[in-house]
Write a structure and sequence with these properties.
By secondary structure, the chain is of the alpha/beta class. About 40% of the residues lie in helices and about 20% in strands.
Length: about 290
């Protein structure tokens, strides 16, 4: 007698096959952050997912933030973190800390973690190969060294993926005047995905996806056409901290990324569920 669990396992693998065939040779960009970057069990799940994706022939590019670690380090040196509209006010002292923490500790820790899971990783930041070039964001209140992306040069990224490495990218950018700029990781991931002509952008978050009623997880909206976004904003369904994340998805799709997803990074292996199952997970923008 074969047992039902074995049959379920076989069904899962069979369901994955057409997706493996569809995505092989394609590029996906994953923005890694939130709880999945803090909780050890989730970290391990993300790393093994990425290694599996690479083994079936998908080019994975991992873009990460590191807000909590930056705040911790600023705290250690007795400096207060200040935000305006969700963007970190970044003076000269802060940009040094941002560069040290993001391109240094956070980035290299992730490289090592992926390699412990038998992946081949290389750590990059926007300064490498002039990957991300930026100018100072002009806004009503001075944010300091916060940059707006002007161009993305993907050569160094594709060199890495062509040679079997998974690039892990921290989003600090170079200025044309020699300054260094802090860049929002969601925005950077969206632009990098567009320039790489990625088939998918996946933003890992600490929410289930876009909810019709933000207090009820059963009201997930699984699929959104980007043309519906303005009316969802007017209705207040897209509000608060969701606005910038969804704007990134819209931006990526408008620039040619086929699908952008907001997925729940609190669920172990959410990346695999998204990539290889009929149901997927979270909210997809197309």
């Amino acid at each position: 007698m074969h047992n039902i669990a074995d049959q379920d396992r076989a069904n899962i693998l069979i369901q994955a096959l057409p997706y493996i065939q569809r995505w092989a040779g394609q590029t996906i960009v994953i923005k890694y952050g939130g709880n999945a970057m803090i909780n050890d069990e989730l970290k391990d799940a993300v790393m093994s997912d990425i290694v599996l994706l690479q083994l079936v022939g998908i080019n994975v590019v991992l873009v990460h933030g590191g807000g909590p670690e930056i705040s911790q380090m600023l705290n250690k040196i007795g400096k207060e973190s200040k935000f305006i509209n969700g963007l970190r006010v970044t003076d000269e002292e802060t940009i040094d800390v941002v560069q040290m923490v993001l391109a240094g500790k956070v980035n290299k820790t992730l490289v090592q973690l992926l390699e412990q899971h038998s992946g081949k990783a290389i750590g990059l930041c926007g300064l490498d190969g002039r990957m991300i070039m930026a100018e100072k964001v002009i806004s009503s209140e001075d944010l300091g060294f916060v940059g707006e992306i002007i161009e993305v040069n993907t050569g160094v990224i594709t060199d890495a993926t062509d040679n079997g490495y998974i690039p892990i990218i921290s989003t600090i950018a170079g200025g044309y005047n020699g300054s260094v700029y802090n860049i929002n990781a969601d925005l950077a991931a969206a632009r990098i995905a567009a320039e790489l002509k990625a088939v998918k952008l996946i933003l890992m978050t600490d929410i289930k996806g876009l909810l019709k009623n933000k207090d009820d997880e059963d009201t997930l909206i699984p699929v959104v056409n980007v043309s519906e976004v303005p009316s969802l904003k007017r209705e207040g369904i897209i509000s608060g901290g969701m606005i910038p994340k969804i704007d990134c998805c819209v931006e990526a799709v408008r620039r040619g990324v086929k699908r952008a997803h907001i997925i729940d990074g609190r669920i172990p292996h959410s990346i695999l569920i998204e990539m290889f199952s009929d149901e997927g997970i979270g909210t997809m923008f197309y």
